[in-house]
Amino acid sequence: MSVQQLIDFFDHRPTELIAQDLLGKTLLYHGPKGTVGGLIVETEAYLGQQDTAAHAYQGHRSKANEPLYGPPGTIYIYQRHSQYCFDIAAQAKDIPQGILIRGLEPTIGLAIMQQNRQRPNFYEITNGPGKLMQALGIQSTDMNNLQMDHAPLTIDLTTFKTPKTIENSARIGVRKNGAWVDKPLRFFVAGNPYVSKIRKREMQLETRGWQY
């Protein structure tokens, strides 16, 4: 992702729209074992100070969540229940809204990701935020505060697929308090088997939810 692509993609749009527009784009990690990545199939939007589920709720600011306050495209990696999660700052500097990448359809470096995850069921390799980070081989916060236009972890906006249907729901795994818990700010490619918590009867194994 070039600097200009980064500017054009975010361009002061609502975070909810950016979260939907990320679906189908290619997430890449140029790691020590080789390049790995895939198509983004699930995201969650977090809307800053007013969002009771957000890390920046009521203006909370610390060394840990400082990347959220960076310019759009800033990498924010954090730990939750001993798993690493990947968030992208989505708004102008000091407006701490972010997008969590929750699910990925592997397309690049499949053997590396399988080795990193050690799961016999291929659909369980990247169907959750902690799982996809394990599959990519990212188990630290070393890339925090880097801009995606010159980081090993980036998004290729030119290599993508278009979802046939985008669905939304309440976010998964947030603390059950506050008015924002049930807001429909989780977005996903309907029918894609790499979406977390998808039921087997909902999987569209032939098309995986993409337009063809």
Walk me through this protein's architecture:
The chain is of the alpha+beta class. Helix content is 15%, strand content 28%. It is built from four helices and eight strands. Strands 1, 2, 3, 4, 5, 6, 7 and 8 form an eight-stranded antiparallel β-sheet that branches. A hairpin with a 2-residue loop joins strand 1 and strand 2 (34-46). Helix 3 packs across helix 4 (129-136). The longest helix has 8 residues, at 3-10. The mean pLDDT is 93.
Structural class assignment: alpha+beta
Note the beta-strand portion.
Answer: 25-35%
H/E element string? HHEEEEEHHEEE
Low-pLDDT sequence parts: none
Distance between the termini: 25 Å
Write down the overall mean pLDDT: 93
What is the β-strand count?
8
Please tally the helical runs, counting DSSP H or I stretches of 4 or more residues: 4
Helix content: 10-25%
Reported for the largest beta sheet, the result is: 8 strands, antiparallel
The gross shape turns out to be globular
Using only C-alpha atoms, the radius of gyration works out to 16 Å
Question: What is the strand and helix layout of this fold?
Answer:
Elements (H helix, E strand, L loop, with lengths): L2 H8 L4 H7 L3 E7 L2 E13 L28 E6 L2 E7 L8 E11 L1 H8 L11 H8 L16 E8 L5 E4 L16 E4 L23
Please give a handful of descriptors for the protein shown.
single chain; globular; alpha+beta; 212 residues; 8-stranded antiparallel β-sheet
